[in-house]
Automatic annotation (TrEMBL):
InterPro entries recorded: FAD/NAD-bd_sf, FAD/NAD-binding_dom, Ferredoxin-NADP_redctase_2
The organism of origin for this protein: Symbiobacterium thermophilum (strain DSM 24528 / JCM 14929 / IAM 14863 / T)
GO molecular function, one term: oxidoreductase activity
Organism placement in taxonomy: Bacteria, Bacillati, Bacillota, Clostridia, Eubacteriales
Name of the featured protein: Thioredoxin reductase
Start and end residues of each FAD/NAD(P)-binding domain: 11-295
Length: 306
């Protein structure tokens, strides 16, 4: 399923192998269409890979993790005969021509579906690039044993920040929670975390810069009228996400936050170009159930219009 696609036209070219992209491909095959899914990452799933606990936001679906859901989606896609190319980067898109320029050549579809999801928002401060390049930004949901005995800064005040701070508390030596203002997380997440003696909450604190060394990181913290250094061994950043709409920016209509604007059928401002999932959904309405429903609507709309 990772081989290079033939130089041919497909009914639907789908960019992204997360929930929305794979569900679109599955529905497309059910409707008798030939879809091709292009995924830059070496494994499918997108943000599903960040869900380490049970699936809660898809009624009737009881699975232990996002990885388990991805495996089921890939199995269904394979059984349906959908083509999924992993590790195939889309470098550019021509929305008008419904063509993707990939690392192995151009691919054109009778319809194009953008299902590229979200990316983590960056702080935009000095030293942040070196922080990522040095692998000092870690995810407890992926690397929890690595955090044992270490000092960790968790940046953010929402649900994901508090959830991951809670994961760290049993293993980390110190957990410092930095939030720009009052916490936005649900009380059931924040209360037990804040009650733990290993956690220090620095409220109304912002990061001025990161100084990265071979043996650790110094976080320059700005808090009220004081600037002070926080020495840590790892940083976890949870300040929200941004839509991965850059491939079609300037070609299809985007809203002020960068989300792709669609009609009720997932059609963008360019005929034949559709979007599904988080890349076109405001944060308050993002969910697995919504992504799957949008995928069905998009696939059916394309089937009816081709």
């Amino acid at each position: 399923m990772c081989a290079v696609a033939e130089d041919r036209h497909w009914d639907i070219v789908i960019v992204g192998a997360g929930m929305a992209g794979l569900a679109t491909a599955i529905w497309a095959r059910r409707l008798g269409l030939e879809p091709l899914v292009l995924e830059a990452a070496p494994r499918p799933g997108g943000q599903l890979n960040q869900i380490r606990g049970r699936i809660f936001d898809y009624p009737g679906l009881d699975l232990p993790s996002g990885e388990a859901l991805t495996e089921r989606l890939m199995r269904q896609a394979a059984e349906a005969g959908a083509r999924v190319d992993l590790g195939r980067t889309v470098r550019a898109v021509s929305a008008a021509e419904r063509t993707c320029l990939t690392s192995e050549g151009p691919v054109t579809g009778r319809a194009l579906v953008i299902a590229t999801g979200l990316r983590a928002r960056r702080l935009g401060v000095e030293g942040e690039r070196a922080l990522y390049e040095g692998n000092w930004v870690r995810r407890p949901s992926h690397d929890l044993p690595w955090f044992r005995g270490r000092r960790v800064a968790v940046i953010g005040g929402g649900d994901r920040a508090l959830e991951n701070a809670g994961l760290l508390l049993p293993v980390a030596r110190e957990v410092h929670l930095l939030s720009r203002g009052p916490l936005r997380a649900r009380t059931d997440l924040s209360a037990p975390v804040l009650a733990n003696d290993r956690l220090v909450h620095h409220e109304r604190a912002r990061v001025g810069r990161f100084d990265v060394r071979p043996d650790g990181v110094t976080v320059e913290v700005h808090q009220a009228d004081r600037v002070w250094p926080l020495e840590v061994d790892a940083v976890c950043i949870y300040i929200g996400n941004e839509p991965n709409s850059q491939l079609v920016a300037g070609q299809v209509e985007l809203d002020p936050e960068g989300y792709i604007v669609t009609d009720r059928f997932g059609q963008t401002s360019v005929p034949g170009v559709f979007a599904a999932g988080d890349v076109c959904t405001p944060p308050a309405y993002q969910s697995l159930a919504n992504a799957a429903g949008q995928a069905m609507v998009v696939a059916k709309r394309i089937a009816l219009s081709l």
